[in-house]
Amino acid sequence: MTQRHYKRRNYFIDKKTQSKFMAAFALSSLISAIAAVFIFVFLSQTKLEKTMYTMRLPETTLADLLFEEMVLTTGIAVIVVILLFSYTLIKIFSRIEHPLIKLKGAILKIKEGNLRDTVALRKNEEFQDFAHTLDKMRTALRTKIQVIQINSENLSRVGEGDKQDSTTLTEECHSRLKTIKQELELLKL
User: Fold this and answer.
1) Nearest CA among 154, 184, 189, 186 for reference residue 172
2) What local confidence, expressed as pLDDT, does residue 36 receive?
3) Residue in 136, 169, 130, 27 with CA at minimum distance from that of residue 88
């Protein structure tokens, strides 16, 4: 039994958006790490200078001497990371939420039978490909249903107008019904 290797699939967000999202997280982590180092250097330097000017050596180890500064720096770094991550998430979700609401509304309209309206997303919003595919599906459905409608109207008009013999009338009815049946089979109901 061979193991299948599947390519990565993009179900919702395209690679460009995913890359931007990951780059934002990496950048915010890097910024917070650099900020943490500078904050620790500043706080420890201040503490060491204060200790040197007291003219007395502390009775603790150097690690214990700078422990408070290390905890404070870690806390500040965590807060900065959380704030940057939150900002990134809010920005990404704002680009995703509105299009999803519009797409859901479009699908509900299709369910109700409205095949005229198109999905109009803003240029920078996500799911452009999905909206385009949904519009193509709606257009294809509308075209197939219009063909069925035209054929059914033609079928209803077959008996009207000129007097035709029953054989010709029956053949034309069968021909129109066959066309309608073929169109319905395309819909795979």
Assistant:
1) 154
2) 85
3) 27
